[in-house]
Amino acid sequence: LNRGVEIALDLSPISAKNVGLDFRFTLATNLSKITDMGGTPSAFVGSSFIQQFNVQGFAPSSYFFKHVVSSTVTKLAGLPFPLGLNAQCEGGTDLGNGDGTVVPCGPNAPRVFAGRPSPKWNGSFSATLTLGKRLRLLTLIDALGGNEVLVGDIAAVNSFFLSSKSVLTGSDPILSGLLAQGFGGDGNIIGATGLIKGGFAKLRTISATYDLPDRIARWVGASRGSVTVSGENLAILWREQKTVYGSTWIDPEIIPNRYNPSDPAANLQYTQESWPQSARIRTTVRLTF
């Protein structure tokens, strides 16, 4: 089931002979949920430690992890970093929502809903200022939110290379508790140490467009022309979450869909060693012949 609303609003607060100002606002929501599995059980659609499942009542490919809520950080002989012993996890139904109760972490602790890969909403805002008959200035901001992404770079530094500051100092009892579960044989905790909220807003474009006088366009045989100078991906204005256990994700827009050979339809929201969006300055000349 995919259900949502789409809204677009255009406003022109200034509309004069030599100056104009136009605003545009868009918003789209998406309630994505599996309503009927046809009697089949919940299905694993992730890969390795990417714990994604199709579960009735939840968005497709949702994340489910054991949710550590507390531990006692203890330095053990022979290890260069402490572990979180006596870890407690949130209770509930396995592959369901957590219910707020507390149970000992271990093989019987439930994997509870930890987020969905697809955004719940996205939107944009733009403002266009027209000066005279030829010059237009544009600013565009776009945003999305309500999704989670598994960032392999952060998961690796926290639970594979074991080199983050939080791991070495034991400053976060939740992370230390997850590591203790990993040392106890639960390999699925690797993904839990790199899951992050993916919402962001970006200053996508600032541009200036000048429409050329007809006589200049005719020099090259064109009927009309314009020149645009623009800057793109210039700034991140808002992030739903910037760090995971003290490790920073460099760019919330790095969200590739990874292919799962066992389930080509799976929506793997996993990224590792990927390049962030580049800031660009470009000049565009448009001619109509």
How does this model look, in words?
The chain has 289 residues and is mainly β. The protein is built from five helices and 22 strands. It has helices at residues 152-159, 165-169, 173-183, 189-192, 214-218; strands spanning 2-3, 6-15, 19-29, 31-32, 43-44, 52-54, 62-65, 68-74, 83-92, 98-104, 112-115, 121-131, 135-145, 148-151, 195-197, 200-211, 224-239, 243-244, 247-248, 257-258, 268-271, 280-288. The protein has a seven-stranded antiparallel β-sheet. The chain is elongated, with a radius of gyration of 25 Å. The two termini are 47 Å apart. The relative contact order is 0.16. The mean pLDDT is 92.
Estimate the strand proportion: over 45%
What structural class do you assign from the helix and strand content?
A: mainly beta
Model regions low in confidence, pLDDT < 50 over at least 5 residues: none
Radius of gyration, in angstroms, nearest whole number:
25 Å
Task: Characterize the largest beta sheet: strand count, sense, and whether it forms a barrel.
Answer: 7 strands, antiparallel
Q: What general form does the structure show?
A: elongated
Q: Give the number of DSSP strands.
A: 22
Give the SSE string: EEEEEEEEEEEEEEHHHHEEHEEEEEE
Strand neighbour order, sheet with most strands: 2-3-12-13-16-17-22
Q: Give the end-to-end Cα distance, rounded to a whole number of Å.
A: 47 Å
Query: What is the average of the pLDDT values?
Result: 92
The share of residues in helices is: 10-25%
How many alpha or pi helices? Answer: 5
